[in-house]
Amino acid sequence: MGGTARAVAGPIGDGARVPVLIIGTGYGGSVAALRLAQAGVHVHMIEMGQAWETPGSDGKIFANTRSPDVRSYWLRTRTKQPLSNFLGFPLDKNVPRYTGILDAEDFSGITVYQGRGVGGGSLVNGGMAVTPLRERFSAILPTVDANEMYSTYYPRANAGLGVNHIDPAWFDSTDCYQYARVGRKHAQRSGFPFVFVPNVYDFDYMKQEAAGTVPKSALNAEVLYGNNAGKKSLQKTYLAQAKATGRVTISPQHRVTSVAPAAGGGYTVAIEVIDTSGNVTSTKSVIADRVFFAAGSVGTSKLLVRLKATGALPNLNAEVGKGWGDNGNVMCGRANHMWDPTGTLQSSMPTGGIDNWDAGGAFAEVAPLPTGIETYASFYLSITKNPNRAQFTYNSGTGAVDLNWQTAWKQPSINAAKTIFDKINSKEGTIYRTDLFGVYKIWGDHLTYHPLGGAVLGKATDNHGRLHGHPGLYVIDGALIPGNTSVNPFVTITALAERNIERIIATDLR
Ligand code: FAE
């Protein structure tokens, strides 16, 4: 540890011995990398997705949501769009198998969407940067001191992420948020509070998009498959700062497959190098004094459950794999009257929500449908108080890790969302859309964007993310959070990582 800053060249070498290895480059991993590097530690980040630095044949790095292509999906031969149908037509199409940016990972009862690449979920998400209300915090992370989170770590996370707020006067006048104003009007007419939601998308840039003075990104339907401008993804914030220390190396297209105690101390980490078709081109073995699991709720849980079951990390406790939740995600659309259009131009960055958490257990984001045509639809992603929790288990027959979530477990989420939308429909004289998730299907209850848990803080780990049973192993991502955050999760993941890494640096690395 220690030493002067020096530029560490790219990918990690076979046989290397490193002080710290971080699995994954999403929120938790990026916070850990920056703070460790600032403390003088050399850090190696391993990321199975691509670097996303090179433009495709259209001159752009990322595709937009209207025309998904080879870049859009992680190792699938057919797209799996969250909205599968429109006006009776299925939307999915065949694509070549490629290490694309959005993973639609199928378990038996749920499809879990996740970002793949340097920056993790920050590459694909809607940028909604929400700090939960303080009075709801004890239900989110019961073992964490709320005072220090709200005085220190949430502010630090908001600053590090570059969170900004929409100018309400511009919101009231711009064409690209007509859909959100319709959402606000309908919510308020039914007596529900509508709240503005901060974002990491640069709203000044969006204003310039609307004025036609810069290349369009949010106003060109870019979100799920990456943003070419405007969005402050982790590559522009935490990871840029981390790289600037000269102490952080990132190895893209490298997938960690095993972590096990090494004979002379530390951990042996097995890595596969993959090409853009997903084929393994070589393997590497390195030794790390400390390993941070930051592969996301699903990635971290799958690794830990398999490593425990196969005996690589035998001392992990029985909490590993438990406490997984979907943040209560459920989607729906409403059909508006012809005199209430939502607009042909829709910013892909949501900026408002309907808060009925206390009364009905639902916080509904007013989401865009940036199809480019008038849809007469209002579209919502609700975050709900769903009590169901699932468990990951190792399947020795297939070698895979399964998740026992059942589709029927979404019913509490549907019930919570209905407390808002049944009332709005009855007030407005409108109905649910039945054409967005299949044929005559109202609820998008087959998916989540917000996987949380699987290595819960204070259960699989101590109260700062140290895994029980194996000193020097840490969890620092969404796997720590027990299933629900009452709002969109990445600010909480970032703030918790800031809290934990500060303690770990102070006590474990000095
Ligand atoms: P994450 O960001 O998923 O990073 C994990 C990284 O580890 C990924 O880059 C993986 O490729 C990599 N990885 C996994 N396994 C391995 C392995 N074995 N070896 C090497 N690398 C590996 O984890 N949240 C919000 O707060 N607001 C939003 O508006 C929002 N919108 C969303 C929209 C979509 C479509 C999606 C998919 C998610 C959205 N989220 C949103 C959720 C948010 O992006 C997510 O909670 C965080 O990205 C999770 O952060 P983690 O650090 O846990």
User: How much of the sequence is in beta strands?
Assistant: 15-25%
pLDDT under 50 segments (min length 5)?
1-7
Average residue pLDDT: 96
Hetero groups:
flavin-N7 protonated-adenine dinucleotide
Count of extended strands: 20
What is the tally of helical segments? 11
Reported for the largest beta sheet, the result is:
7 strands, mixed
Radius of gyration: 22 Å
Outline the secondary-structure elements.
Elements: E1 17-23, H1 27-38, E2 43-46, E3 85-86, E4 89-90, E5 102-106, E6 111-115, H2 137-140, H3 146-161, H4 168-173, H5 178-189, E7 194-196, H6 203-211, H7 238-244, E8 248-251, E9 254-261, E10 267-274, E11 280-293, H8 296-309, E12 330-335, E13 352-356, H9 357-360, E14 362-367, E15 377-384, E16 392-394, E17 401-403, H10 411-428, E18 431-432, E19 447-448, E20 473-475, H11 490-508
Parallel strand pairs: 1-2, 1-11, 2-8, 6-19, 11-20
Antiparallel strand pairs: 3-4, 5-6, 7-13, 9-10, 10-11, 12-15, 12-18, 13-14, 14-15, 16-17
Helix pairs in contact: 1-7, 1-11, 3-11
Describe the structure.
With 510 residues, the protein is of the alpha/beta class. The chain contains eleven helices and 20 strands. Strands 1, 2, 8, 9, 10, 11 and 20 form a seven-stranded mixed sheet that branches. Strands 7-13-14-15-12-18 form a six-stranded antiparallel sheet. Strands 5-6-19 form a three-stranded mixed sheet, with no helix packed on it. The model is unreliable at 1-7 (pLDDT under 50). The structure holds flavin-N7 protonated-adenine dinucleotide (FAE). Flavin-N7 protonated-adenine dinucleotide binds next to helix 1, strand 6, strand 9, helix 8 and helix 11.
